[in-house]
Amino acid sequence: MSTDKKFKIAIGADHAGFEYKELLKSFLSGHEVKDFGTYTADSVDYPDFAHPVAEAVESEAYTFGVLVCGSANGVAITANKHQQIRAAICWQKEIAELARMHNNANIICIPARFVSEDLAKEMVSTFLNTAFEGGRHAGRVNKMSC
Hints:
Distance between the termini: 36 Å
Largest sheet: 5 strands, parallel
Order of helices and strands: EHEHEHEHEHH
Number of helices: 6
Structural class: alpha/beta
Strand content: 15-25%
């Protein structure tokens, strides 16, 4: 992955995202990556992994999070329960870019059943290498918290 900046990244997945999580861990090997599970392809409950990733990012122990499940909906809904989390479901590189640029997203949620492995890697790379634009978007982002 091409980036000069090294990040602390929290990663997690359910059983449907397990293989992609393992792939992405290898892809992110130049960064400090903490794996919050799951550690097998056996059936599990996605909140058990989405909450710890969200807590790690929300506490600022980690800069970004990567969550993977079948549709990305479950992990995104769970992560977004945390006040300082902006978890974005991404299925195209451009959406990953806009999630960072306009929404200052701090967790990317990947639907393993709907994107290729190469696209998942491309989206994560784009997500990490795209800066938040701020400006008019900052005011909007500040209105998100309840």
